Amino acid sequence: MQRKTFLRGLIGAALLAGTSPAAFAQSGEPIKIGEINHYKRMAAFAEPYKKGIELALEEINAEGGVLGRPLEFIFRDDQGDPGEAIKIAEELMTRDGAVMLTGTILSNVGLAIASLAGEKKWVYLAAEPLADAVTWSAGNPYTFRLRASTYMQAAMLAEAAAKTDAVKYATIAPNYAYGKDAVAAFKEVLTKLKPDVEFVAEQWPALFKIDSGAEVQALERAKPDAIYNVTFGTDLAKFVRDGNTRGLFQGRTVYGLLSGEPEYLEPLGDEAPEGWVVTGYPWYDFNEDDGANKTFVDAYQDRWGETPKIGSLVGYMAAESIAAAIAKAGSTETEAIRAAFEGLPVETPVGQITYREIDNQATMGAFVGTTALQDGAGVMVDWTYLDGADYLPSDEEVKKLRPSE
Amino acid sequence: MGLFLAQLLTGLANAGALFMVASGLSLIFGVTRIVNFAHGSFYMLGAYVGYTLMQVLPGMVGFWGAILLAGIIVGLIGVIVEICVLRPVYSAPELFQLVATFGVILVIQDLTLMIWGAEDLLGPRAPGLKGVVRILDEPVPQYDLALIAITPFVAFALWYLISKTRVGILVRAATQDREMVGALGVNQSWLFTGVFFLGCALAGLGGAVQLPKGGADLLMDFNILTSVFVVVVIGGMGSLPGAYLAAVIISVLNVFGVSYMPQSTLVLMFVVMVVVLIFRPFGLFGKEEVAGEHGQVGEPERPIKPAGLRVRMLVLAGLVLLGLIPVLGSNFAEVLATDILIFCLFAASLHFMLGQGGLVSFGHAAFFGGGAYVAALLVTYADTPMELAMVLAPLGAGLAAVVIGWVCLRSTGVYFAMLTLAFAQLLWSLVFQWGDITGGDDGLVNIWPSAWASSNTVFFYLALVICVGGILLLRHAAHSPFGYALRAARDSARQAEAMGIHTKRIQWVAFAFAGAMAGIAGGLFVFSKGSVFPNELEIARSFDALIVVFLGGVKTLSGGWVGGASFEAVKDYLTRFEYWRLALGLLIIGVVILAPEGIVGSLRKLGERIGFLNAAEDKR
After folding, report:
1. Minimal Cα distance from B447: which residue of A?
2. How close does chain B come to A352, measured CA to CA in Å?
């Protein structure tokens, strides 16, 4: 992986040196960022993410880099193992000369690096992990998070659910921390908005080992008005197929956390569920009115010859955030970068986001819409972009949730 | 009533693919005694090959044809693996072949990623069987009914093959006594290849036949592996009716578990397995293993003796070099060396149990992770200082080993191994599920060393002293009367007992001792990483240790730590490349073929040949 990156960097540098006058403005060593991810174990998610980063880097460096120096990412595979990630983080920071860390999709790996970052006083931008703990219960001053957390996305769906007549809800979520957080947050917000709701069944299939026939039967037995789904990946595909076959979704609204993301919707093909209210990424629907969103999608398709996933957007925004933070810091010293991240505004494809000072959480929001079938593929229609800043608890509550400050 | 019946049918349908894969594993083990870790990979290949064929072959005939073809193709791939990888190592120590199959897993994972890409593939639906049938007003998918109908046919065909044909007679004979079959003039190697073909074809069939209920993805190899092992063990290794019955029991119980105890999904089958093995130590239809009675395959093990002067000097020089790392190397070298040292102690503790005691544990991570969690919980909830937590970690792990060992040692051989796996999994799910205390898979974070040990250099020296001390202690134990008794119990339980050795008790003590040593490694680990997650209790962690022990050499004294150090160092280097799993897998297979006695065993032979070491013949 490194060699490939190196070669690519070499070719890129040669091209830049030959064509772009901006290249002459760059001087000195590149600024290195350590990027740790599960490139093998979660290849379907990590590859688009990496391509997003690379696109952003090419754009940043074509415009002269950061602080007059080119920005460079060192990509490393951690096998999805927290202990391995810690070791790699040490190597990136102490041997390879990285100025800060970013990466990971799995929350547990993200939390491990966050803990290390707090101890060693290294800046870490958790790009993709969703666990609330990253910025709250296990948060620390050196860890920042880009994506809308589990709580934020669940709150968006709960708000949509509160507007309907449905009273009896059933939930299905993978049996691990993300699933549990997602159900707890949905219940909390929905009960607050609509106190008479009732949760009639909670199903907890093992992650990526769903017994979908049995789960569908169990949900059907509870006769809910609506269903809240947190399953994803292969679990989601099996759940949707069995649910469709056995008629579970007839006459019921389903709220699907992340179910609208291309990573999960595309593999379903013409079996994608219709009429689900989901969070996701409707890149196919952007037109000239959507400004930066459209620009990013076009640039991505031009560069890679494939359609973007939500991971592509997150990777792109992560690189942009880091460039913005270092530019604001004016140096590559850890303390300067950390201070720069606090309250940092970043212009991104989805609009301006801010890294909140109170809990280091970015205000990146999510697209919420309804699923439909168009030309044999699942898409989101009637979507809106909801700003993450509106779906976070009050400042007092956040302070209570974040013991480290 | 309707719902009950529908649930029963769902369970029976799920049993179909599970039975096919499990019967393949069971057949392979029964005849070749190979614990085929790569069986899940063949299942995954079946799904991918079947998917591709279904895109090409049209209609109903095409669909079923694709499933059959997928089975045959995967069977042929299995034959290639058997001939190229396993044949050279049949004479290696028992269970050594599982290391080779582990290498096969890695190779298949990367090749599959290269060929089919990273995105999950949703299986096509079966033509003509897309709808549901209403039974007592409950919807039952037609394809489920088809599966329920097909499975008995497959089972019947297998049964006919095994019990009514000449091939079957040979297979059964080989299951009971391989050497005798060979002595009677049957070409063993082709019999083995044939059985491997059949077993892999069944796995491929299982993968293809489940496509309409799911699809093909890159995680399915490991995801099915544990359930398949559980089914085979509950049924009894080598028993086809047992595999069928166990697949049905597990699948049906799972369906009802989902409905009435939704949280049970992680543990149910392991609880069933433990219960079954406690009452029937060889599974429902299994027979007592007789493999050990004929002695071990391969050349007899040499009596152990203390290392000679040259080796001691060599080790001393190595230790001095290690101690100089902070002076000569970088900060990262210290971190890497600390990691490797901890892993070496963990591997050495398993090696002691496996090499000296002959106790193959598939669940040793229970004690490594157990020790780590004991330390982490103490720090999190009682603000225990690091020093005390590190002392209590092995105590906790040792205590767990005392309890788990008591239950597991009721069985032997592969059943013992599976019981240890089950307990490791139970511990894992306890930690995973009990989020309020253990943090679930968000783990426990911010567990850092005391101020005096917080620099990487000091912690490295701490790890160096503790790990090297631990490894020497394990080595010393092997030379003590306890070690002699343990080896006696391993080599011949009957004779050892006749000499007055309480073999079970000796093994029990060894189990607890090895558990405690793994706990020390776990305690160190948690402070070196600052956090702990259920990953440290996972099956994959147990397998890591198992692999390195075999790679290092079971029948040597230092195989554990040498294997651990080489494996970790190589892995650290290889993971920098894109297709590192392919490279690592090929490397493992290469070592297995070239050095069937493990790294240390083969180095020793080499050393004797060039005259550096005294050969075994001229004993002092």
Report:
1. A115
2. 30
Q: Are residues B592 and B470 in the same domain?
A: no
At residue A57, what is the residue type?
A: L
Domain identity same for B503 and B572: no
| Cα A295 from Cα A206, distance rounded (Å) | 39
- Calculate how close chain B gets to A31, using CA atoms only, in Å: 20
Instruction: Report the relative pairing of strands A100-103 and A124-126 from DSSP bridges.
Output: parallel
CATH number of A2-148+289-354: 3.40.50.2300
What homologous superfamily is domain A151-282+366-401 in, according to CATH?
Response regulator (3.40.50.2300)
Same domain, yes or no: B520 and B465: yes
CB-based contact A177 B440, cutoff 8 Å: yes
Contact A215 B214 (CB under 8 A): no
Q: How far apart are CA B397 and CA B365, in angstroms?
A: 10
Q: How far apart are the first and last CA of chain A?
A: 38
The pTM score is 0.88
| Residues of the domain holding B52 | 2-220
A69-112 confidence digits (pLDDT tens):
999 999 999 988 899 999 999 999 998 999 999 999 988 899 99
Boundary residue ending a domain (B489, B519, B537): B537
Same domain, residue pair B75 and B198: yes
Give the integer Cα–Cα distance in Å for B188 and B184: 10
B130: contact with A, CB 8 A cutoff: yes
Our CA-based measurement puts residue B100 at a distance from the nearest CA of chain A, in whole angstroms, of 21
Residue pair A379/A285 in contact (Cβ under 8 Å)? The answer is yes
Specify whether the CB–CB gap between A47 and B118 falls below 8 A.
yes
Cβ-based contacts of B531 with chain A (< 8 Å): 82, 86, 111-112, 115-116
Cβ atoms A30, A57 nearer than 8 A: no
B127/B64 Cα distance (integer angstroms): 9
Domain count within chain B: 3
What's the ipTM?
A: 0.85
Which pLDDT score is estimated for B137?
Answer: 81
Which tokens sit at B146? 């088809």
Domain range annotation of chain A:
2-148+289-354, 151-282+366-401
Cα–Cα distance between B540 and B353 in angstroms, integer? 19
A2-148+289-354 and A151-282+366-401, same CATH topology: yes
Tens digits of per-residue pLDDT, A140-178? Answer: 999 999 999 999 999 999 999 999 999 999 999 998 878
- Give pLDDT tens digits for B280-339: 888 888 877 654 444 455 566 777 778 888 888 988 999 999 999 888 888 889 999 999
**Residue B432 contacts A where some CB pair is shorter than 8 Å:** yes
* Claim to verify: residue B56 and residue B116 sit in the same structural domain: yes
pLDDT tens, position by position, B49-90: 999 999 998 888 999 999 999 999 999 999 999 999 988 888
Q: Which of B483, B515, B537 is the last residue of a domain?
A: B537
Q: Of A5, A13, A57, A43, which Cα lies nearest the Cα of A317? A: A57
Residue B260 lies in a domain: no
CA distance A206 to chain B (A): 6
- Interchain CB contact of B438 with A (< 8 Å): no
